Amino acid sequence: MINKALRLLRSFHGLKQKDAAQMLGISASHLSEIEKGTKSVSFDLLQRYSDVFEIPVSSITMFAEISEASGENKSAKLKALISDKALRLLDWLDTVSSVHEKAHSSKP
């Protein structure tokens, strides 16, 4: 789920993949693969995200850590559920913001 959190972080800041990739010092195709979940993210790259977006690495990884919690522990299941819902909410907000921006940019 880290891939989705990183995509939403980039999108929240209004950056296109190519612009974020340049800021992070990686290729746009590498960033695309990370956001799709086909490439893993190194700690070094997470640190660059932290520096670029001025957010602690721990905050970036929080959703992934919680959602990947396993076992029969009710607390872990609840945290995973909350994490999933929070990511879905952020995704929805991103979609609504994009639609809103497109609607306002197309007005004469």
Number of helices: 6
* Helix and strand element order: HHHHHH
Count all strands and give the number.
0
Distance between the termini: 40 Å
The whole-number mean of residue pLDDT values reads 81
Q: Strand share of the residues?
A: under 5%
What would you call the structural class? mainly alpha
Global shape: globular
Measured as a percent range, the helix fraction is: over 70%
Q: What integer value in Å does the Rg equal?
A: 15 Å
> Main sheet?
none
Uncertain residue ranges: none
Produce a short descriptive summary:
The chain is mainly α. It contains six helices and no strands.
Which SSEs are present, and which pair or pack?
Elements: H1 2-12, H2 17-24, H3 28-36, H4 43-53, H5 57-67, H6 74-105
